[in-house]
Amino acid sequence: MNWERWLWRWRLFKRRLAQKGEELAPRARSSTASLKTCRECRALIARTARTCPECGARLGWFAPRTRAGGGIFEAAPATAALLVAIVGLFLATWVASGLGPGGPSGRVLVRFGANNSAVFGTAEYWRLLTAVFLHGGFLHILFNSAALNYVGREVESVYGWGRTLVLFIGAGVVGSAVSTIYHPFMRVGVGASGAIFGLIGVVGVFGYRRGGAYGRGILRFAAQWAAFGLVYGLIVNADNAAHVGGLAGGVVLAFLVPPEREEISPFWNAAGIVAASLVPLAFVFAIRAAL
After folding, report:
1. Angle at 246 between CA 107 and CA 283, to 5 degrees
2. What is the rounded CA–CA span in Å between residue 202 and residue 212?
3. pLDDT tens digits for 226-258?
């Protein structure tokens, strides 16, 4: 009687074990599958992908989904750092100008590192970079900050923080250089709009390389945004030479800097740190020249 009871219990244990195995089988197959589901758009994508090619959502460990209240510093640290630098320098130049209602004065901006047509003649090449982080008025800083907040997030969601810094700073320097060459009598040139146009160019190249209906939509949106910005620049008499130069620089850099995909690249993260370190170094040269 006892033997039959233990045999019955053994059979019951094996049955439960088999049922448990059937329940865990889908999870086991999922863990070894080559595809996974994007948590944003539910598309099937490669398991190793860190950015969804369909909706552009960031996946994986490098940029986890932002917690409630995390804000831009968690979702896009490079864009946040650039905004802090730009707004901080605007406040510094405004204070140095006496807090006037018109914003920073041209004299103060030149001392802080504004661009001008004599950059190549005086070998003050650092002005090509410092000018990107300076702004001449409240509307100027407002529009550029809003644009950078939007397009910077988009670029950083695909390229990561290191590449975003390289692209922004590289495109900004190219835009400043083109502006200097195009305007032989420019006295004060400031603004991040050239670098922002560069990021728009990066978005367009990403759409071109992505292809398909999704990629064409991104490319069309970037082209429309660039065209609107250039037309608006003509209306308000902005420095479209810097805009075109930054746009071209961003397009060229986007073909050289690959989007972030399977893994974090130590090389591009190091390149981003080097690019970012050039900004305070350039302002050190500006301070030395002003003394």
Report:
1. 40
2. 17
3. 999 999 999 989 999 999 999 999 999 999 998
Please give the full DSSP string across 59-96, using - where no structure is assigned. Answer: -SSSSPPPPTT--HHHH-HHHHHHHHHHHHHHHHHHHH
- Residue 138 CA to residue 37 CA, distance in Å, equals 45
Among 145, 157, 179, 193, the one annotated catalytic: 193
Domains located in the chain, CATH noted: 72-290 (1.20.1540.10)
- Give the predicted TM-score (pTM) of the model: 0.78
Q: Is 193 a catalytic residue?
A: yes
Q: Is 97 a catalytic residue?
A: no
How many of the other CB atoms lie within 10 Å of CB of 99?
10
Look up residue 186 and give its two tokens: 């420019």
Question: Which of the residues 135, 179, 243, 277 is marked catalytic?
Answer: 243
